[in-house]
Amino acid sequence: MRENRTHGSEGGDGESRSRPLSPDVPLFVAPDEKAFAVMDSDGRFTCPHCGKSRQDAKAFAENNSPELGKAKNKKVELTLLIHPQWLEGCPKHDEEGHEYGGSATDSVAATIRWNNARSVKLRLLEVRGTLPDQVTCPETGVTFRTDTKGGTSAKAGKFACGQETCGTEQSIVGAAEATGKSAPWAASVIHGYSPHRDAAGIPYSGRFFAVANAKLINAAFYEWEERKNADLKGYWPTSPIPFGHMTHQRNPLERHGIKEWWHFFNYRQLLINSLLLKALTTHPTASDTAKESVLGAFQQFLRNNNLFCIWDREYDKLVPHLSNNNFNPKNNVVENCVFPRLGRGNWSSCTDGAIEGLSWTQAPWEVASVQSLQSAPIGANEKSHKIPLRDRVQGECRVVCHSASAMTGITECELDLVVTDPPFGGLLHYAELSDFFYVWLRLVLRGIYPDEFEPEYTPKALEAIASKARHPEDPDGFYQRILTDCWREAYRVLKPGGILAFTFHHSEDEPWVGVLESLFDAGFYLEATYPIRSDETKGEGEFGSKQIEYDIIHVCRKRNGAELQPISWARLRRLITDDVRHLKHLLEQHRNDGLPAADLDIIKRGKALEYFSRHYGKVFIEQGREFTIRDALPAIKLLVDEEADATSGIEAPPANAEPYTRQFFRLFYETCQVPRDQMQKFLRGTGIAPGDFEERGWFSEKSKVFTLTPPVELARAWKGLSRKGMARDFDQTMFLVGGCFEGSNIRVTDTLDSPNFAPHPATAELVDWLARHGGTQDIKFAAQRARTIYRDWLAKDENKKKALEQLKLFDIDA
Fold first, then answer.
1. What is the pLDDT of residues 546-601, one digit of tens each?
2. Is residue 280's pLDDT more than 70?
3. On the CB side of 81, how many CA atoms lie within 13 Å of its CA?
């Protein structure tokens, strides 16, 4: 949508400026667009209906005309299209039999032939108004479609044949792979800036679009060909891309024809980047410190000048490579300019960051919210304010680079504080992503820092991630072993009263289990947990489906050989519940200020984990049966969910039931079927996967729907088995209810009277809960009969004694 200055009338609009989007290309006006006229340089308008002209320069310049009415702003929708003649492509060879280039590995001569051939048919068409399904170019008379029938595909990774009678969809990676090289690249449109248009007040702030200039591109390609193995040799990487998860499994770069790191760039980008690298490292008077500072800016510029940058149409600007942490090839590529006055990711914006960082070391500051400041010179629209700090960054520091699992050079009990941000399972493969920058930086740094930059690639053998490429048999196991080694090394170098602090995202379950187990096994416990505003908002995609604004800083201390005291989960649960209640008033204040429910859940979970960590390895669900961290996560999630259940009027399953049982019955509250997507959303953050229930035989899946296993089937499955194994509350409850179904042919009392049957403290309440909230009337009726039988059985003196003994086992400290 572009805003133009107009005079409004019933017959049409008069505009004082030419078209702002692309002034030199033909225009197509959509059928539903209102008629308009554009004032020429002499202030003359031509009526779009009768063709008569009218001179009105002075009146229009004064922004008011008695005849045309008062001028006002109007939003005009404009779309820029590439002509279908260009989209048709070109044959493999020219008329003389020479092959066209365009891919990363083609010769410069072949690619220049390609550029020239593509530029011949390159035309643009501007459309005013709502884009219709068909448009006609006024210059060529060609009518073509703009919807999916015109050669586009709504499916990711697909393209469609542009012939209206065809429209066949094909795989982009499959088509590229068949050629044995990368997909050809061709420039189509430039996004320019004109100071004259800007000064004239033409809408779009002086910016415009125009047809790309093939001659300028070819000139840069010629220069690259002449200099790449001459004065620029050694200033651009020639390393092949090593096998990795991000490069070959998640994103199959080789299938796209991208096999070496320089394939991420076209020839003009290689020329620009290598020229910059050479200039900044061979400067005759700059100090080594200054060169390394500018090298940091160069690293950022690499993100913004490669073939993996895209043009975001919604924001109308470039989006740099690695905005999403992957190597997925792009199909809406944009090539950046180096020294423009405007634009994102240009050289000046990258160097500004380096300069700002150096300035901060001399005058450091922190950001504080306006709510935390009682009196400060803050503008009305400011949400935060920079607060100067008195502790300047001093030069006396030591920077080393080595594995956190072996901190050589640091003696035992030397450090007061260790701060870290551990990797998150297998979601981010930092070393593989870093190679994109490393292969450029090592060209000029390996002579200065041979230990760090002599290897061809970043070290990966001891990287604490779950890599299916390097450890295909057990990536999660390797991740947890290395992470535990890192925690143990932190334990070694910390003083007895030292602190380990780290932050960790909570949007996935399995990596979080590994982090906690390795942390506790290394000898730490959680001293405190603090919510902080996150550096990222987790949305759809890599980081899960919840919008999580807050992370938790975990502050840990060493156990220092302190003897852990055994405690039952029932007792620990009561302690956690009491403490969380003390937080309730504060949390509700934040909720009134807009703190999302997902963040409240994280804060509560952090508090609960503090308690659990102090008794890690000594928490029991019953005597002899340890309550593991994998058990604790769903149990803690239940504590968080209880408040939501109470608010919504849902009666939660009994509090003394086992965590898996409680989660399961909450899922099947008043139902016997749960869709898969609802199941996954419900279980997120609990540490439980649907497969955990399915392996137990509690439900089955068909057509993306989970169906409760009928209680009578669960009861019959115990035929011939010892009742000694019927120790869990779920097994006892479903056996009693299933055995009371009509036609079950199960004598429930025989099992109750068995000397091997030990009643679980939660069984009676679970049966009673199913009588009210079972998924069907049959389940409710059977649960009512089971409730009567079980209560009568418990009323006998010898069974009362057995139930009390079990209660003590399940609550050791009661």
1. 344 557 788 999 988 777 778 888 788 888 777 777 766 666 666 666 556 656 66
2. yes
3. 26
Closest alpha carbon to 781 in 792, 771, 769: 771
What's the number of CA atoms in the CB half-sphere (13 Å) around residue 757?
22
DSSP string, 308-333: T-EEETTTTEEE-TTSSSS----SSB
CA distance 696 to 729: 14
The 3-state DSSP class for residue 649 equals coil
- On the CB side of 799, how many CA atoms lie within 13 Å of its CA? 18
User: Helices 676-683 and 659-667 meet at what angle, rounded to 10?
Assistant: 140
Per-residue pLDDT band at 17 (split at 50, 70, 90): low
**Can you give the three-state secondary structure of 735-774, one letter per residue?**
HHHHHCCCCCCCCHHHHHCCCCCCCCCCHHHHHHHHHHHC
Rounded Cα–Cα distance for residues 49 and 56 (Å): 18
pLDDT in tens, 493-509: 999 999 999 987 655 55
Residue 180 one-letter amino acid: G
Decide the pairing of beta strands 494-504 and 415-420.
Answer: parallel
- Bridge-partner residues for 215, per DSSP? none
- Enter the DSSP assignment of 725: G
Phi first, then psi, for residue 618 (nearest 5°) are -125, 20
pLDDT of 57 above 70: no
Q: Return d(Cα 283, Cα 287) in angstroms, integer.
A: 9
Cα 320 off chain centre by: 15
Residue pair 523/558 in contact (Cβ under 8 Å)? The answer is yes
How does DSSP assign 20-58, residue by residue? SS-TTS-EEE-TTSPPEEE--TTSEEE-TTT--EEE-HH
Q: How far apart are CA 586 and CA 588, in angstroms?
A: 5
Rounded CA-CA distance 407/422 in Å is 16
Alpha helices per DSSP H over 15-171: 57-61, 84-87, 108-120
* Neighbour tally for 43: CB within 10 Å: 15
**Worst-scoring range by mean pLDDT, 44-48, 150-154, 440-444, 626-630?**
150-154
Strand partners for 79? 127
- Is 210 in a helix, a strand, or coil? strand
Quick check: 109 and 117 in contact, CB under 8 A? no
Structure tokens of 691? 């497969």
CB atoms within 10 A of CB 344: 15
The whole-chain average pLDDT of the chain stands at 83
First to last CA, the chain: 69
Yes or no: say if 810 and 622 are a contact pair by the CB < 8 Å rule.
yes
Tell me which residue of 656, 644, 645 sits closest to 570, measured CA to CA. 656
- For 664, residues 6+ apart whose C-beta sits below 8 A from its C-beta are 693, 698, 730
Q: Confirm if 690 and 700 have CB atoms less than 8 A apart.
A: no
Phi, psi of 611 (to 5 degrees): -65, -45
Handedness of CA 486, 492, 493, 499 (dihedral sign): positive
More confident position, 476 or 806? 476
Q: By three-state DSSP, how is residue 127 classified?
A: strand
> Would you call 723 helix, strand, or coil by DSSP?
helix
Statement: residue 431 has pLDDT above 70 = yes
Q: For 672-696, what is each residue's pLDDT tens digit?
A: 999 988 888 778 767 688 888 999 9
CA distances from 784 to 338, 654, 698, 751, 789 (A): 77, 16, 21, 18, 9
Q: Which residue has the higher pLDDT, 358 or 148?
A: 358
Which two tokens mark 329? Answer: 């090839």
